[in-house]
């Protein structure tokens, strides 16, 4: 019994260590020079135009949280192809973050209206708030999310 508990604790320790290493190697603040040099322009996205910033079709990775679009490229180890949260890349991650779920089924299909999040519980909204703070502290906002068909092409982002 004691051995089992020890094994579990050792596993948890290493999982935590690996994640912390990924997080620090992808910390945009640690890569300050690079971020300062990057030209960040505010842009308007729709679910469909955001989708291409998924780390496969574009080098940059963007995700939307509460209709603000973050450049999470520095967190490619999390959101890039094969990363634990790749489902969020190029997508509105709000509901997934609120529900603490990276199940792709939680994401709104690209051709549907933007999720208004109205049916979230208080606890789910609090979870979303704290994730939003996490993203604000860690990543640059590069634009906002708008309904499909409402953004003129010249307003769209071209990075
Ligand atoms: C097996 C369960 C899970 C473990 C062990 C785990 C572990 C971790 C760890 C250790 C971090 C790094 C925290 C830090 O930077 O200090 C992290 C970040 C994160 N996790 Fe999880 N997590 C789990 C489940 C989830 C789920 C279900 C979600 C779905 C919303 C999620 C979303 C995230 C996000 C969005 C980040 C932030 C990445 C960033 O900073 O860009 N995690 N996770």
UniProtKB/TrEMBL annotation:
The record, for SMART domains, names:
Cyt-b5
- Give the superkingdom in one word: Eukaryota
Extent of the signal sequence: 1-20
Q: Which UniProt keywords apply?
A: Endoplasmic reticulum, Heme, Iron, Metal-binding, Signal
Q: Which Pfam families match?
A: Cyt-b5
Mostly located where?
A: endoplasmic reticulum
Please name the SUPFAM superfamilies in this protein's record: Cytochrome b5-like heme/steroid binding domain
Which residue numbers delimit the Cytochrome b5 heme-binding domain?
A: 45-146
Can you say where in the cell this protein is located?
Endoplasmic reticulum
Please state which protein family the record places this protein in.
Belongs to the cytochrome b5 family. MAPR subfamily.
Q: Which PANTHER family match?
A: MEMBRANE-ASSOCIATED PROGESTERONE RECEPTOR COMPONENT-RELATED (PTHR10281), NEUDESIN (PTHR10281:SF72)
Q: What is this protein called?
A: Cytochrome b5 heme-binding domain-containing protein
Tell me the organism: Lodderomyces beijingensis
């Amino acid at each position: 019994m004691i051995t089992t508990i020890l094994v579990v604790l050792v596993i948890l320790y290493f999982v935590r260590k690996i994640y912390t290493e990924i997080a620090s190697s992808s910390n945009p603040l640690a890569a300050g020079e690079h971020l300062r040099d990057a030209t960040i322009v505010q842009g308007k996205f729709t679910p469909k135009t955001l989708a291409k910033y998924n780390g496969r079709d574009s080098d940059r990775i963007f995700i939307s949280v509460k209709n603000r679009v973050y450049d999470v490229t520095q967190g490619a180890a999390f959101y890039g192809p094969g990363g634990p949260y790749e489902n969020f890349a190029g997508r509105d991650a709000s509901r997934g973050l609120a529900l603490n779920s990276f199940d792709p089924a939680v994401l709104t299909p690209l051709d549907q209206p933007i999720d208004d999040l109205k049916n979230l519980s208080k606890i789910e909204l609090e979870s979303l708030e704290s994730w939003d703070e996490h993203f604000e502290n860690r990543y640059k906002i590069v634009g906002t999310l708008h309904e499909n068909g409402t953004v003129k092409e010249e307003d769209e982002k071209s990075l």
